[in-house]
Fold each of these.
Amino acid sequence: MQALAADPYGSSSEPVDGDRDRRQIVAAGVLVRYYVAGAVLTVTVVRVVYV
């Protein structure tokens, strides 16, 4: 999560439904779907699913 917080658009994440600010990544067997709000430098985790 530290790497994701440092670079929410990197770390092998990918956009969801073509929206650059809605992202998802699989890390350590967990699917994390999140939203990036750059104006206030906030990353909000929307869904965490163990795969």
Note: The longest helix spans residues 2-6.
Amino acid sequence: MTTVMTWREWAAHDATALAERVSQGDISATELAQQTQAAVEKINPHIGSVVELFDDAIAAPETDGTALDGPFRGVPFLMKDLGPGVKHRLQEQGSKFLQGYRASEDAFLTSQIRAAGLNIIGRTTTPEFGVCGSVENPAIYITRNPWNPHYTTFGSSAGACASVAAGVVPLAHATDGGGSIRIPAGSHGLIGLKSSRGVLSIAPALSDITGYVSTQGCVSRSVRDTARFIDSCRGGAPGEFMPYWESKQPYTEMIKRDPQPLRIAVSHEWGQYHADAHFVGELERTVRLLEELGHQVEWVTPSVNFEQAFTAQTTCYISNFAQFIQRMLEKRGLTAPPEDQIEPINLRIWQKGVNMSYSERWKMQDAFNTVSRDLGRFFQQWDVILTPTFAKPTPLLGEKKYLTLSDNPDVMDWFYTLWEIFSYTPLASLTGTAGISVPLAWQSSGIPLGMHFQTRQGNDGMLLQLAAQLERALGGSFNTNRMPQVHVSG
């Protein structure tokens, strides 16, 4: 297949740069889509990150209303196979049970993405229903980390992160309900922002009082791409239950200047959980960089009841996922999930959560309120909390205890096994606050290690300012001198 750029040129362009090339008439949106198709053909056999490409959107980027005069000018975009529906396209959520399901309409965010000029040309892999932290079901697909294909991608935005890290696309859709944007971004050397609750809509299937922890977003290789995505796609759909945050200035403008010196609390001891020793060393190195940039950094842990937070978060996941499965069963006239079509842990989640009482849900909601108020008071004194993005090294493929294929009979124990490694990101999901993983460190294995910054609600722009300041301090881009083993330029 003919390509419009060399692969090194392609990998050197972020989405903003590609859009500028289209605006200048150097290349067309169709040529970009065709080069992305060639990238998938080159890379996908090695990492398995893309489920399907949409030939009609590749041949005609204006398909389904993509605004080629929007900010992204037809830049190719991959949607995670979970979350916002894409009209008439398959959305199977990594599950045998949902094979063949097609969305009947575009979700609100999908419409925003099209209006931004992003050409939705395919869908990326995710674990079944986005529940676990790796895409490893041989009966469906396995997705590998392009930095080293023997390692997991983490998840649940696995295919999105692997595709962006390998240079297939510069920007991809991702979702986050406890770290599913930030965690895989952290293990792929990417920018992963979980926006505040009330920035990107999850309509029409969910709202901010039914989705609780659900957040939409993207993963990218540059801060300006993430800023442009939020600027272009933010806002509530008709009928939202709460006001949506607005920004006095576009994030794409905010990130051009450094933030004021910040008070940054740093910790790796999160209740009963703490980071791997090597991670602590990388955290200390990040602290020194922040201090060199003029920020005040102190080792302080938020005064939050972490045990209460993790218990409430686990209750939220079990009850919400159970009801999601139950609704699918009711649509098909089934009384129980077919055991040959739904993975074992997801079956146990349904069993435990389908009849959860209102009393249990009320206790969960009460804990959400208490923890959010405590964290809010903490942010009256501190601008940012810094931790590693995750607590333990990225596992090799095959660590079954983290998978929904696990034979663990105790679903609560299975979740708490996840929290041992995914310790730091759930708090921002529970409280609706903003969090971002920035590629500042490395694991002993050579896999990237993100550093995770959290702030108060609605303060997303400051996180992006800080990330952009760090990006400039490192020469204008992250991972400049390192490249994944599997990459388009290889």
Note: The two ends are 17 Å apart (CA to CA).
Amino acid sequence: MSGRLFRLHSVPRRVQALTAAVLLAVVVLFTVTGVALWDARAALRAIGYDEGPMVVATNDVYLALSDMDAQVTNVLLTGAEEEWLCDVEMDGGPSCSRSLPRYFYDIRREDAQRAALQAARLAEDAEDDQMRLRTVQSVLDGLHLYDQRVQAAMERGRRTDHAFGRLPEDAAVEYRAATRIMTEDLLPKANNLTLAGAADVEASYGDPLSRMRSGRIWVLVLGLTVLVALAGLQAYLARRFKRVISLFLVAAAISTTALTVLAASLLATEADRVQTAKEDGFDPVLRLSRTRATGKSLNADRVRALLDPADADRYDQTYFEKSQTMLYIRQANDLESYYAMLDTRVGRYGEDSHKVDFGGFYGTEATEAMARGQQTPVGTLLDRYRDYQQNDRRVRELARAGKLEDAARAHVDPRWHFLSHPGFRQHDSALDARVVRHQLVVDRMVRDGEGALEPWPWALPASALFIAALVVGGVWPRLAEYR
């Protein structure tokens, strides 16, 4: 009895088998299409809402910590501890006026805490990453210890009316302890969080993008398969029932063709959007944000060398290593050779006869800008980096000559001593503007991609049911003839 169900000797059985094959091909086509579109949504969400923002948040922790450290070093450099320690609620009176660096420090401290908590929340929502959560908690705990050491250094510094750029020894001891917490604990942990998150983004982006592209090929192949199956069904009905054409099957073929083309085109567009969001948006945002954070830390290293001359060589080496991270020159062995070669490398950038002959964060940015024919904005950024390094060279020369107060004054703004040198601020502002520009690329690509995908969760199953109904409508009258 069961064997008869699979016998195709009768015409109705053959029509039913061909119809089932067509419907199965339709189901497979739209299932594969749905999976590919789901991958597109997952890739967009990874860059726009999940892993991407988590990485930016962890880098914001690094940036805020570096900014906090810069405020502390500038205050100790200029001897403005009294205004730093002023507590308006406790001290009161017109003589108590809390300094702007202290306000900036408190704001950046809140920013660091907020970014750390955001990174923890996103990590927990993503996959309950316990190690990352523990690292975030460790950063928050270390931040409290750093606050205590900074407060102690300010208290010690206030007791002695020290010269500009000269820190009393007891204050220097507390400052060194604060520096160790910042440079050996907080900043490395924040950097590790950023690197781990970047690896997660790479995995969350790369696999779905690969599946989207292969899915697009499968959609085209399966769409063609459905059309071949429809053509076979139409040919059999025309030959067996003397019907030249079935309008329902023609409509099903047209609908399948239209939806296959639309789906394949959408997948190609979404893949381009995802790739653009990652390579022209997220990657430069992360790279330039890390450059900016490294620059702030590097700027603080120069102050450390001034405040702690006994350990200046170590701080100079750290400064050199961070400079190489930002813009790498292979032939440079120390800061003096770096200064000299930097001027030549940056001066040649953008010339048609010269390729980019430096590496690091800026090397990658410069190479990509030349490939797109957009050298001018990056050239301006490199000029500002070179100007800042030239001022640093002057500061080091004054410090080596024993003119520590002149070196300290050359490092800060001539008018507002609580601010870094204008050359550094211009460089930092240019970096921030580039970050914002690339972040807009991420936001636009994610917004456009999600907008294009929005109707498909209901349009795809509705289309599959519509085509299936057309197929059934095309064969039903022929089967009815056998009743």
Note: The chain has 14 helices and no strands.
Amino acid sequence: MSEGKVYNLLITRGIDPDNQYEFYKERIDSQRDFLYNEYNTIENELTEELFEKVDVVVLLFGLFNDNKELFKELIAKSKQYNVPLLLIRFFGMEYVLKELEEIFDAVVGWNPHCIVDAIETLVDGEDWVKPCDISEEE
């Protein structure tokens, strides 16, 4: 992990019947050496100023069906402001549609090490090539 680096993450929040956000927070917070500032879609307006601060936009696929307009806006603005997109698959789901996967810079499951690795890789400007998420233990 990048020593001392603090990552600025914009995390999806919205209608969340399966409590994906809290599950994500438990996973990411379990990584003691990973430091981050959270911006989320409930407490922050999706302005240019916000996107200038953000290192990675983290979309929780489990929120997609109930928050489609929010996802569309986040995807469009992340592309507009050149902020990498990380998709966290729905818990237990191994794959997402190819068309959807192509939109994102990285797609991972719930393994906290994979999430952190993807964030660090995207912030370092590298392409995500590791299939860390396919064989992980949930």
Note: Confidence is low (pLDDT under 50) at residues 134-138.
